[in-house]
Write a structure and sequence with these properties.
single chain, mainly beta, 1 helix, 36% strand
Length: 73
């Protein structure tokens, strides 16, 4: 039986030129300057934690929405 191991500290590989990533992630933060919305595309769900870690303090995180990227269909 094999085990899949993912190094969560490793940056994701960029998509091939012209490729569209599978997931669209929209994060909403409540900051001192008002509401801030950030949208990113990722290929694998395990990449989500890196987006959250790179954003504002997680206490400012109001909402995270993950949807299939409509451009990929």
């Amino acid at each position: 039986m094999s085990r899949l191991s993912v190094d969560l500290g490793q940056a994701p590989l960029p998509p091939a030129q012209g490729a569209v990533r599978r997931w669209r992630v929209t994060r909403t933060y409540q900051t001192y300057h008002g509401v801030e919305v950030r949208t990113d595309d990722i290929e694998e769900l395990w990449e989500l934690h890196m987006l959250v870690e790179q954003g504002h303090d997680w206490n400012a995180l109001v909402d995270v929405r993950i949807t299939m990227n409509a451009e990929r269909r």
